[in-house]
Design goal:
Blueprint (H helix, E strand, L loop, with lengths): L1 E3 L2 E3 L12 H11 L4 H8 L3 H14 L5 H10 L11 H11 L1
Antiparallel strand pairs: 1-2
Helix pairs in contact: 1-4, 2-3
Length: 99
């Protein structure tokens, strides 16, 4: 569970961060830094609709009701700077601890 705007959001732990490809990880990190879909797309050389589809897919996979919850889940898993950034083993440890 993640506190969010005065409420609690339960996020699914069914998706393992190791399943993220480099593009998904980069998109999540850029979202966390405040970039919009169009800016992310330009930097990655993909269309903004592709970015939107990938973000939507990640939100579904992580049961995140929105982008803020997606960012909270990524932070919880250590994908945004906490612990060993981008290390799937670290994220697996975090998932095991939260189960």
């Amino acid at each position: 569970m993640v506190p969010l705007c005065g409420g609690i959001v339960t996020l699914s732990a069914s998706v393992r961060p190791g399943q993220l490809d480099q593009t998904d990880l980069t998109i999540v990190r850029m979202l966390h830094r405040g970039l919009g879909d169009a800016a992310i797309g330009r930097r990655l050389g993909i269309g903004h609709r592709t970015v939107q589809r990938r973000v939507h897919r990640l939100m579904e996979r992580w049961s995140a009701p929105g982008r803020v919850a997606l960012g909270a889940r990524a932070q919880e898993l250590g994908l945004l700077g906490e612990g060993r950034v981008g290390d799937p083993a670290f994220a697996e440890e975090r998932l095991a601890e939260s189960a």
